What we know:
2 strands; 5% strand; two-stranded antiparallel sheet; disordered C terminus; single chain; mainly alpha
Amino acid sequence: MDYYTEILNDLEKLLEQKQYDDALFVIRSEMRMPYVPPDFKEKLEAIKERIPVSEEHVLKVPDEEKIRELLKGDAESQMYAVYSLINQNLRKHKVLVDDILSSDTISQAKDILIYALIEQEISEEFFLVKDGLEYHFVPRYCLLPEESDGYQEAVKELKEVYLHEPSLYQFALDLLQEKCFSHLPLSYEAEESGQLVEAIRSELAKMFRTVDNG
Length: 214
């Protein structure tokens, strides 16, 4: 299950439980990301329309104690905790951020937090444990996915590959963003774009082959 599907599933659960504040918070956090796939954005807006208008009010941001409590929960709780944190000035929460990045918090939540650290151009060093690997990185000197040479070159190559298939091109861009996002805090170099494109083409071929086979 990919990142976007997990978010949509989490939102459906929140609506079923009538946790409208939490659902709105997640939707607004996702919509503020620099890149939001068109189909994902459309689904977010559709879910937002299902939330009772009376429930749309100013949301209370959890404090550090509440965030730490949420981080001990399931994937949905961990994602909500990180969404709550990235909407704040992360410079004021260095210890909490360090604790999250070095813990067993799910990778998707860490990716979102790393993205926010880079976006806020924080100059302090952080220690990260992710997928069994350890990293030391300074957000200020890292690149957002769409800023990397590898990403930009891959976009050009994918545009040529799917020149006459705009729907597949959009799928390809979504996969590219997802791959670069999950690669944080590292970024892809220009010479790695071919590798990215081949991986994306292979995934798309498998995906649509499965659909064609019913």
